[in-house]
Amino acid sequence: MTSAKQPSRVCFQLQIDPARLDEYLARHSPVWPEMLAEIAASGRRNYSLFLGAGATLIGYYETDDDAAAQAYLAASPIAARWEAEMARFFVGLHGRPDQAATPLTEVFNLHDQLTASATNESTTP
Fold this sequence. Notes:
Layout: E1 8-15, H1 21-27, H2 33-42, E2 45-52, E3 56-63, H3 66-75, H4 77-86, H5 97-100, E4 102-103, H6 110-123
Antiparallel strand pairs: 1-3, 1-4, 2-3
Helix pairs in contact: 2-3
């Protein structure tokens, strides 16, 4: 019996230069159509960016293979051009934003815990 691999949930944090926040937001409304296509082609889905206090940016996406998605975008000339233009908006970043962001550790997921709870209940005598 083969079990389906769970998609990876990836969350990351970046710090936007507060002096450039308005321009950063404007650049994302909308993102270049060709960059949107590259993100989708990489296998990333359910991708969102959230703005927090002090111009902290939190990103989230799901993918079946994050290493493959990273490799795809690393080799993409479109992504390289987008990331080169976006790099100036970030503080303390060394490298391309899509590859140098600080990953966050997931500590809770409702779906996973409900699924585990239901499984445990069905196997309890």
